[in-house]
Design brief:
This protein is about 70% helix and about 0% strand. With about 190 residues, it is mainly α.
Length: about 190
């Protein structure tokens, strides 16, 4: 638990705050006692505490209590897949919020053409155009590129998570397209 907490750069007080967010109150001194498992009388962990600790640390309860080997490749694959799935879901949610906020700008092509027409006809001077509008135009330009990158990232995260579910034949087919595998097989061919 200490390793996972420190890996995130959290203090014991930070971990206590994270636990409160999921409904478990645990004082930082209690966290310190739990982390000192080598004492004569280590503090026992209640089931609700173990579940909350596992949740905020992104672990399974088995991993938290040390049943999964720290360097077990399948456990690492499971953690990577679970983390990618959570990140992909979060990305989808945040993209929806971003879309909603962007739509509130009313920066549709029609509204932009109308504003540009007014500027071209001299009815609105670009110098008089509000700073908010200028910001919105620049955001519009960057937003379209960002949406594409978010989509690509979401696809990559979902792909990484999906590898855990693939059968051997699917994995073999995916490996043939892998740049790493192609580099290995071409170096094998060169040494032959």
């Amino acid at each position: 638990m200490r390793v996972e907490r420190e890996h995130r750069g959290w203090t014991q007080a930070d971990l206590a705050r994270e636990l409160e967010k999921v409904g478990v109150r645990l004082h930082p001194s209690a966290i310190a006692k739990i982390e000192l498992r080598d004492t004569d009388r280590p503090r026992a962990i209640r089931l609700d505490e173990a579940a909350a600790l596992a949740k905020v640390l992104g672990l399974g309860v088995d991993e938290l209590v040390g049943r999964a080997a720290l360097f077990d490749k399948q456990a690492a694959i499971d953690r990577i897949s679970d983390t990618c799935l959570r990140l992909a879901r979060s990305l989808v949610d945040e993209r929806k919020r971003l879309d909603d906020a962007f739509n509130a700008l009313d920066m549709t092509p029609d509204s932009l053409r109308h504003k540009a027409t007014l500027m071209d006809e001299g009815l609105v001077d670009i110098a008089e155009t509000s700073i908010v509008f200028k910001r919105a135009v620049l955001i519009l330009e960057a937003f379209h590129d960002l949406r594409s990158k978010i989509g690509d990232l979401g696809f990559d995260l979902a792909s990484i998570a999906h590898y855990r579910e693939m059968g051997e034949s699917e994995l073999d087919a995916a490996l043939k397209d892998s740049a790493i595998f192609q580099g290995v097989s071409s170096s094998d061919d060169a040494s032959a």
